[in-house]
Amino acid sequence: MSSNVNAIRKLAEREYKWGFVSEIESESVPKGLNEEMVRLISAKKHEPEFMLEWRLKAYRHWASLERASAEPKWANIRYGPIDYQNMVYYSAPKQKPALESLELLDPEILATYQKLGIPLDEQKRLAGVAVDAVFDSVSVVTTFKEKLREAGVIFCSFSEAVQQHPELVRKYLGSVVPYTDNFFAALNAAVFSDGSFVYVPRDVHCPMELSTYFRINAAETGQFERTLIVADASAYVSYLEGCTAPIRDQNQLHAAVVELVALDDAQIKYSTVQNWYPGDREGKGGIYNFVTKRGKCEGVNSKISWTQVETGSAITWKYPSCILRGDNSVGEFYSVALTNNYQQADTGTKMIHIGKNTKSTIVTKGISAGHGQNTYRGQVKIMKGAVGARNYTQCDSLLIGDKCGAHTFPYIEVRNSSAKMEHEASTSKIGEDQMFYLRQRGIKGEDAISMIVNGFCKRVFRELPMEFAVEAQKLLSVSLEGSVG
Amino acid sequence: MKSPLLEIRNLHVSVDRHQILKGIDLQVNAGEVHSIMGPNGSGKSTLAQVLSRRDAYEVNSGEALLNGEDLLAMKPEEAAWAGVFLAFQYPVEVPGISNAYFLRTAVNAMRKARGLEEMSAMEFLPMFREKLRLLEMDDKLMNRSVNEGFSGGEKKRNEILQMAVLEPKLAILDETDSGLDIDALRVVAKGINAMRGPERAIVVVTHYQRLLDYIVPDFVHVLVDGRIVRSGGPELARELEETGYGSMEASTSAA
Ligand SMILES: Nc1ncnc2c1ncn2[C@@H]1O[C@H](COP(=O)(O)OP(=O)(O)OP(=O)(O)O)[C@@H](O)[C@H]1O
Ligand SMILES: [Mg+2]
């Protein structure tokens, strides 16, 4: 067993390669949160009155929850109290965002994205992928805007959308995740500084993959971004987000909100490769990733598909969900969550079946290594009117070593007897048998683990857009790789 | 004289404090085929797995040299790189990894360890196809996950396919014949025979003469209760078929 143990130990000692800090002059506001701060953020963004009002309502709601100590406590995660007054709520590079032209962008920022493997300059861009780059609190550049505009697709930073398309923002903002939804959603609504906005008009098949790359750089700063994607009737869009942050001893809060709206026959495919700094080997530092993501299949035959690969963050708390309102609408959730060292993840989904013949699929793969704790929490709710609803759920857990844990909490609520529900679950350990078999064929211990884990996640990787499937696979292998060169 | 490919001297092995191998001596030269026979639980698989360096076993004393090098100091992958191949009595499933991908990864891991260039898919495929034909295997099995949902016979055939692709120096086949139907046995034997050559030694662990009708061994050894109690030529296997192991055990106690 000893050499298997070695491979496992190396795996636990993986290095975080995205942990550098960029020297960029930034403009921050003082620490702390109050109504004045909310007004200040809104003023900095030159927001219309309706935005400020909405933020203030959200802030007051959040403050009442905070006074009542109503931060959610039900998740299977452990962390010390967060001091919301000891945090910076807005930090932006001093230089103005160069939303239209790269020449105006701070070369240091350009270099940062280059180093992260996200080239923003024209020649080196990922073919067929438009990128919105969010740096701390603001979007710094969006690529391929012109090409998208020709197709009628709006892809821009949230701030820009508020200026250019206030009617769309007003109509859909908070329509899926109201600020009253939960503690972190309220906080986000009050202070969110930027994010991405997508609108795909009727009958348009978005000609390229859209993606947002989130980078936290500033210290002691929370990142609160908000993404809103609307696919009008018969539209299609595939969107991907990626994220990284520097190595820091202190925990940093990332409380994002994502809202998706799919109208009749529309389809949204939303993929996440989450690689925030996970903390060190002793569990010091790392991002608290407390995120609310929800999609509404508003129209008939609409479809929303979430795929997530969660390898980073000290703590992950997120449940990308689907409200299946339109008849025949389809919701999907495919997830890989890896917890290593002292990482904790409590993640899963909610599928709310309202319309007739609605269908949902949940496939999750949890991998725990080191002292990692991995929880699947999922809810499937079949409402009275959801005649002929169907759900298929499959939750598999893989344990590497014997100090980690896997937990599963499925909640099922069925109010219509015609519903068909299927649930499968498994927990397995990387077996000595499997390891020996692979190593007997000449595959080194660490590579054997990575191969077994990749095989375990195959069903989910298949759902990622081609351009990112390979990346995700590599990321997983790197996350499993030891620190020896 | 060059040293034997495999030389085992006075090997004692235990598992969880149970003594399983109680002093094995065995010499195998390149170009030879040896057969190891013996009753259930006598230690045949233990010997095979110790030689391929499964680390659940404790070597209490004795040694095993591969080309004069200390085999027992190697990790499983190092033994594999040095040319040891084990066809498993119970092949293991690897969900989500296709057979073809698995084999190419294995081939390249070996090549890399030996300082050779990795094989591209273009170079790998023709060689792979040829071996598939040799073992009369369906291409479709290659896109399926390693051993997952394979029938017993398909798993065994897959082991021999892997051997054919990896071209080991010392192949240890642990009951590859059990679970094979008559036609499959013939095909697998053909595959094994195709691998016979002056550079390679094959150790066949089996309970049945049936296999040895196809693969005629140079030597037969009888393993009883952790010891080799008799060695001989192919005729020894036929003798066993008639008399069973009872008389062998008697002969040890007499010795
Ligand atoms: N962990 C263990 N603890 C105790 N005894 C063990 C352990 N593992 C194996 N053994 C014993 O070692 C002995 C040898 O097993 P081995 O698998 O080598 O036999 P074999 O000759 O290959 O038998 P078969 O012909 O049935 O395949 C058996 O009696 C088995 O029960
Ligand atoms: Mg055996």
Fold and architecture overview:
The complex is a heterodimer of chains A (485) and B (255). Chain A is an alpha/beta fold. In chain A, 25% of the residues lie in helices and 34% in strands. Chain A is built from 11 helices and 23 strands. By secondary structure, chain B is of the alpha/beta class. Chain B has one domain (31-52, 75-254): 3-Layer(aba) Sandwich (Rossmann fold). Chain B has helices spanning 44-51, 76-81, 99-113, 121-134, 152-166, 182-195, 209-214, 235-243, 246-254; strands at residues 6-15, 18-28, 33-37, 58-66, 69-70, 84-87, 94-98, 145-146, 170-174, 201-205, 219-224, 227-232. In chain B, helix 5 runs parallel beside helix 6 (182-195). The chains are: A alpha/beta (485), B alpha/beta (255). Adenosine-5'-triphosphate binds at residues 15-16, 18, 20, 38, 40-46, 89 of chain B.
Quickly count the domains of chain A: 1
Largest sheet of chain B: 6 strands, mixed
Stretches with pLDDT under 50, minimum 5 residues of chain B? 250-255
- What is the average per-residue confidence, as pLDDT of chain A, rounded to a whole number? 86
Bound heterogens, unique = adenosine-5'-triphosphate, magnesium ion
What is the helix content of chain B?
25-40%
**What is the H/E order of chain B?**
EEEHEEHEEHHEHEHEHEEHH
Keywords:
heterodimer; A: 485 residues; alpha/beta; eleven-stranded mixed β-sheet; ten-stranded mixed β-sheet; 34% strand; disordered C terminus; B: 255 residues; Rossmann fold; six-stranded mixed β-sheet; 9 helices; 12 strands; globular; binds adenosine-5'-triphosphate; binds magnesium ion
Q: Short summary of the structure?
A:
Chain A has 485 residues and is of the alpha/beta class.
Q: Could you give the topology of this structure?
A:
The complex is a heterodimer of chains A (485) and B (255).
Chain A: H1 2-12, E1 26-28, H2 35-44, H3 49-67, E2 91-93, H4 107-115, E3 129-135, E4 138-142, H5 145-151, E5 154-157, H6 158-164, H7 166-172, H8 183-191, E6 196-200, E7 209-215, E8 226-231, E9 236-244, E10 251-254, E11 257-262, E12 267-274, E13 286-297, E14 303-310, E15 315-318, E16 321-324, E17 330-339, E18 344-353, E19 359-368, E20 373-382, E21 390-399, E22 405-414, E23 420-429, H9 432-440, H10 445-461, H11 466-480
Parallel strand pairs in A: 3-7, 6-8, 7-9, 8-11, 9-12, 10-13, 11-13, 12-14, 13-15, 13-16, 14-17, 15-18, 16-18, 17-19, 18-20, 19-21, 20-22, 21-23
Antiparallel strand pairs in A: 1-2, 3-4, 5-6
Helix pairs in contact in A: 2-3, 3-8, 6-7, 9-10, 10-11
Chain B: E1 6-15, E2 18-28, E3 33-37, H1 44-51, E4 58-66, E5 69-70, H2 76-81, E6 84-87, E7 94-98, H3 99-113, H4 121-134, E8 145-146, H5 152-166, E9 170-174, H6 182-195, E10 201-205, H7 209-214, E11 219-224, E12 227-232, H8 235-243, H9 246-254
Parallel strand pairs in B: 3-10, 3-11, 6-9, 9-10
Antiparallel strand pairs in B: 1-2, 1-4, 4-5, 7-8, 11-12
Helix pairs in contact in B: 5-6
The structure holds adenosine-5'-triphosphate and magnesium ion.
Magnesium ion (MG) is lined by residues 44-45, 89, 174-175 of chain B.
